[in-house]
Design brief:
Uridine Diphospho-n-acetylenolpyruvylglucosamine Reductase, domain 2, Enolase-like, domain 1, 3 domains, 5-stranded antiparallel beta sheet, binds flavin-adenine dinucleotide
Length: 295
């Protein structure tokens, strides 16, 4: 293969989910669902694919595309693109962290092709949409030829580029329990911070997504997730617990930043990047909480 040509592979574009699942399960060689292709097709250059390898293009499966509110859950089809989600008034209103994250993925071309399902199944530690989805405690709806299962996102992610998805399964949708703003229980406010090496296209070095539920100035609930720090993006439960009942004021956010950084880095132990990343994570957490508190 020269640098201008892709290697040979098999390609099918089924019209229904049932056909797609059947193709994946009967394939003689390795088979992969193909969504926007912005990760999978790039891998064609870097990892060997045998010519009998089958790509099952999900592009015709319109039932995997929609975004709607159903029974107090936000339902997002796995094929929803970053561009669609960033521009969706429903996502902006119900899950602004996700809208902000999608608006920051790659380039306009990447956002137009790349899908939420592809971002999550690829499972990069630096995937932009995963911290917001963790804050929303997203449930994944996954189909195989035999069954449909539901999995919490944190259980779906096993490690860098590893998930519980089997080869014959297709991720169909995400279900996000609605975070409602009812006055007695308080209102949710959001903050999202992302560090990249330069202002143009770049993979995130640190991502922080925060949601605070405020009753007046008191934090009744905090949800905090970070990406690109630990091998798998995660919630920072210790800091969330510490924040509950505290005032939404700068010294509290500063202390939470320090605690978040200690909690995240305690999980991975010292690395060459720790002296740089540890204080930066503390600052980004403080900023995300401030952004949420001030909004
Ligand atoms: C120039 C460039 C910039 C980028 N910048 C960013 C960035 O800033 N932030 C970021 O997070 N990512 C970035 N990416 C990575 C990529 O665009 C995203 O991860 C994107 O969301 C992948 O979605 P896709 O639909 O293209 O997935 P695909 O490439 O089609 O698939 C990715 C993987 O998921 C599997 N898959 C896809 N959909 C399904 C499904 N419904 N069910 C089961 N398996 C499925 C595929 O088999 C494959 O293993 C960038 C990529 C490029 C090329």
């Amino acid at each position: 293969m020269d640098s201008l040509h892709l290697p040979a592979f098999q390609y099918q574009r089924p019209g229904t989910l049932r056909e797609a699942l059947e193709l994946l399960s009967i394939s003689k060689g390795p088979a992969f669902p193909l969504a926007g292709g912005t990760d999978l097709l790039v891998q064609l250059r870097s990892r060997p694919f045998a010519p009998e390898c089958l790509f099952v293009d999900l592009g015709n499966l319109t039932e995997l595309r929609g975004v709607q509110l159903e029974n107090n859950n936000l339902q997002i089809g796995a094929l929803a693109t970053h561009a669609q989600l960033a521009a969706s008034p429903l996502i902006q209103a119900e899950a602004p962290l996700l809208a902000w994250a999608c608006a920051r993925v790659g380039t306009p071309q990447t956002r137009t092709r790349g899908t939420l399902g592809g971002n999550v199944v690829h499972a990069s530690p630096a995937a932009d949409t995963i911290p917001p989805l963790l804050v929303h405690e997203a449930i994944l709806v996954i189909c195989s030829p035999q069954a449909k299962r539901r999995s919490a996102l944190d259980r779906f992610l096993l490690g860098p580029y590893r998930t519980t998805k089997r080869d014959d399964e297709v991720l169909v949708a995400f279900s996000l329990p609605r975070l409602t703003n009812q006055p007695p229980a308080g209102c949710y406010r959001y903050g999202y911070q992302r560090l990249i090496r330069r202002q143009a296209v770049g993979i995130a070095r640190i991502i922080v997504a925060a949601a605070l539920r405020l009753q007046g100035h008191t934090i009744s609930e905090a949800r905090l997730a970070c990406g690109a720090v630990t091998p798998v993006a995660c919630r920072l439960g210790g800091v969330e617990e510490w924040l509950r009942g505290k005032e939404a004021i700068l010294p509290v956010f500063q202390e939470a930043g320090e605690r978040a950084s200690r909690e995240a880095f305690a999980r991975i132990g010292p690395r060459w990047s720790t002296p740089y990343k540890q204080p930066v994570l503390a600052s980004l957490v403080r900023r995300a909480l401030q952004q949420a508190g001030d909004s």
